[in-house]
Amino acid sequence: MRGFLAVAGSLLTSTLAGCARPMDVAAARAAIQDADRAFNQATAEHRVDGWVQFFASDGAMIRGAGTVTGLAAIRETMTKAFADTSFKLTWEPTSADVGASGDLGYSIGHYEMRFRDERGSAQVRTGRYLTVWKKQGDGSWKVVQDIGVQDPVVTP
Prior knowledge:
Layout: H1 2-19, H2 25-46, H3 48-53, E1 55-63, E2 66-69, H4 71-82, E3 88-98, E4 104-116, E5 122-135, E6 141-150
Parallel strand pairs: 1-6
Antiparallel strand pairs: 1-2, 3-4, 4-5, 5-6
């Protein structure tokens, strides 16, 4: 009897595992890139509020001066940048990928930052970024880690 139950249990487990829906990797990658583009759009329209709304509550930004963790700290850090009305940050993802579980992924892309320096001269900085995204219970994607690396500044 024990042998029968073991075989039946094994068959049931195999059957249920076979019923699990495989993750659509292409769709998940597209969803992450769509979330990244929406993040860019929200930031362009709502500035610091748009930036913060795309972070998970425990999200973090890795910056040269250290890591900034949590929504309040992220808002405080980015409020300083967005207080400058000439400050504009835009970006575009170039690729994305997702882990086998389908709930964690990343996007990579290029960014451009425009602002005026202390003399009032228009400045443009470009760079690359890596953003780690986590799928939330409601199906949305939120930023859990963000890091940007500035391209070398070219002086004329």
